[in-house]
Write a structure and sequence with these properties.
elongated, 10-stranded antiparallel β-sheet, 251 residues, alpha+beta
């Protein structure tokens, strides 16, 4: 009968204890790593902050409120649309305000406010405003609401063009540098008239800022007549919003 040098555990408790200690060490290691990651998350470095980031986006240069101060050949334009001479005289003498805004949903809103000068039955001068409002999505056909003196039924499509430069025609056949033509930011409204009405002329209206004065809106209206196209140009000046001054009186 031989005796071993070292005592042998018949139940295996030493091996079980060793495995338990290793599992406990792994858990403590994972817990320490989680605590370190939480501390690193809490101790974040402060980011640079600038007040200019809170500034709202600048509006489109075509947006704003404009008042008409000049018109060329607008009488011929109205006459081509079938407007009578009395109505033409009334429209030419009226005060017109144009409002162009791009809403949050990217739709363009056009509002024409026409203040017609007239007299009441008792002889008093009156100034009655008339509003015509339309909203367009670029590239989508929309039934447009026109003024009362325009008897057409039209379906209009708004197109938007960015500012760019395109080469014009060369002056000779030799390969020489071409002169560049500058095209400003503009909106083009293409009006297609229904053919089942009395007036069936299609028309195009271009909205763009003056090249020399960005506060002047140039509205070019073109309508196809029986012999040739009639082009009318109207100019509108931008209206600045005046801040209301508050007067404080001390008693």
């Amino acid at each position: 009968m031989t005796s071993p040098d070292m005592p042998h555990c018949l139940t295996g408790c030493a091996h079980t204890y060793k495995e338990a200690r290793e599992v406990q060490k792994e858990r403590e290691k994972g817990r320490n790593e989680d605590e370190n990651s939480m501390k690193s998350r809490r101790e974040r470095k402060p980011r640079s902050f600038c007040l200019s980031n809170l500034r709202p986006a600048l509006p489109d240069p075509l947006e704003g409120t404009f008042r008409q101060f000049q018109s060329n050949d607008y009488e011929k334009y109205l006459e081509t649309l079938g407007v009578g001479p009395m109505i033409i005289s009334m429209v030419i003498r009226a005060n017109m305000v144009l409002k162009i805004n791009q809403e949050i949903d990217k739709r363009w809103k056009f509002v024409y406010e026409t203040s017609i000068k007239a007299k009441s039955m008792r002889g008093f001068s009156t100034n009655t405003p008339k509003l015509v409002e339309n909203k367009f999505v670029v590239g989508e056909a929309t039934a447009e609401l026109l003024d009362d003196w325009d008897q057409r039924l039209v379906e209009s499509v708004l197109e938007s063009y960015e500012e760019m430069e395109t080469p014009s025609k060369t002056c000779c056949q030799i390969s020489c540098p071409a002169v560049c033509e500058e095209h400003h930011r503009r909106l083009v409204l293409i009006q297609t008239a229904r053919t089942d009405q009395k007036i069936t002329h299609d028309s195009t209206i271009v909205y763009e800022l003056d090249k020399e004065d960005p506060d002047v809106m140039v509205v070019t209206s073109r309508v196809g007549g029986e012999l040739e196209d009639v082009v009318a140009i109207r100019r509108f000046r931008r209206q600045r919003e005046q801040e209301n001054e508050r007067r404080i009186s001390v008693i």
